[in-house]
Specification:
Elements: H1 2-42, E1 46-55, E2 60-70, H2 73-81, E3 85-87, E4 90-94, E5 97-98, E6 105-111, E7 114-115, E8 130-137
Parallel strand pairs: 1-8
Antiparallel strand pairs: 1-2, 3-4, 4-5, 6-7, 6-8
Length: 138
């Protein structure tokens, strides 16, 4: 009888430890999943912005679109989607329109109606930004 009691006591102890360990693991996995979801919400894969392109020299609005800028940034987006050309960090062409130094015509860009204070390659868009590219005479 003592052997049976020891056996059941041992079995009960092992079972309790097993369930306790699994319960803690499940709680840890739930915390990890919640933390991952929160991180993804704080660091989304893309940022939603509005982009408009205007040729103010010839008084033409070229396009306005809702865009999703990924981790590669605005420069990469423009190169892939709008035929942007960059030389020495400066955008020299967009949508087939080339800057003309002799005529003093250049591409400028504005964020939320203010001239950007960093180059396109360094700009980190924020959700809801309105980014406007203007071909202007200086």
């Amino acid at each position: 009888m003592k052997k049976i009691n020891k056996y059941f006591l041992s079995l009960l102890t092992v079972t309790t430890l097993t369930f306790t360990g699994c319960g803690n693991q499940a709680t840890t996995e739930q915390k990890d999943t919640t933390t991952t979801q929160q991180s993804e919400a704080n660091n989304p894969e893309t940022t939603d912005v509005e982009i408009s392109i205007k040729d103010t020299v010839n008084d033409k609005e070229i396009l306005t679109e809702d865009a999703k800028i990924d981790k590669n940034g605005l420069k990469d987006y423009l190169e892939k989607n709008h035929k942007a050309v960059f030389e020495d960090g400066m955008m020299t062409e967009l949508e087939g329109i080339k800057q003309d130094e002799k005529e003093g015509q250049y591409w400028m860009y504005y964020v939320n109606d203010e001239m950007a204070d960093v180059g396109i390659g360094d700009y980190v868009p924020k959700a809801g930004d309105e980014i406007e590219f203007r071909f202007e005479k200086m």
